[in-house]
């Protein structure tokens, strides 16, 4: 969110993709050590680096070592209060991010970074912001590096064997790097009517479009994919064109359901009921399980006779004590839905095996599920 702040040069716009409050002031420096930048950060003053770009990256690395230094307290799998552990982890992440984001650079008109040994960042910034700026603005260096990395991944794409192709995901759109849920979607038996001449599926909260593309590959002749994130809608549209399924997918900007009914309705909602701190986190965190509840409560009225609803979700929230173990069953009962079948798999991503991860005690127990649901009689 952009804000105007005062610097020792002028009043200038401050941009930050997170919900953090902007600094109270900014100070331009040709170079500075990590300790000085930290001292200014704790005084709510950002440091705007004007010197060598690679030196700035080295100082940022030094900052990360300082703010992410382990507390020295031994972590064990026997955590008494898992919910407290999760929220403490989130608070630490937010505090560290705020401090690191106090090292910034000035982006000139046309997305120009005028620093010695600086790369051309115009394409990466255009990927995030669209039309080029006419006035300079300040941007945390850590976020700029994230934009650059995301842009490279956007260009390269992510190879998904379930699709036989690549999904290209820009910054601000959830990336399907956890492929185990795609294995479940590729294996689940489709309702017979979904692949008939009039077969229709809805992909609720399509994101990058990966689920809609997978359904098209599996033979569903018409899919309606919905999302409210403009970046996701643009990314999904481009992915459908690349994968050759744009003629099968009707992409709509809609909150949850489109009009009409379908033979199959699929939703992969955010798995954790917590508050997101940036747009990209909305794919991870669902306050009070609002999207999950909205999907379950509304899906019955959008199903054709003998149609199915597929819910993709993990039990990580239960292992973190963020959700009671009987929560989903109660939601299904309230929504008048019954379970046809449950497919499940264990996560294969790196964090699931990282004993140093602060949430390893929960991740090691996590299971990902695909619930096949139908309207109860």
TrEMBL record:
The keyword S-adenosyl-L-methionine applies. It comes from the Bacteria. InterPro entries: DNA_methylase_N6_adenine_CS (IPR002052), N5-glutamine_MTase (IPR050320), SAM-dependent_MTases_sf (IPR029063), Small_mtfrase_dom (IPR007848). SUPFAM superfamilies: S-adenosyl-L-methionine-dependent methyltransferases. Keywords: Methyltransferase, S-adenosyl-L-methionine, Transferase. One of its GO terms (molecular function) is protein-glutamine N-methyltransferase activity. The keyword Methyltransferase applies. GO terms for biological process: methylation. Residues 197-315 form the Methyltransferase small domain. Pfam families: MTS. This is Class I SAM-dependent methyltransferase. The lineage of its organism: Bacteria, Pseudomonadati, Pseudomonadota, Betaproteobacteria, Neisseriales.
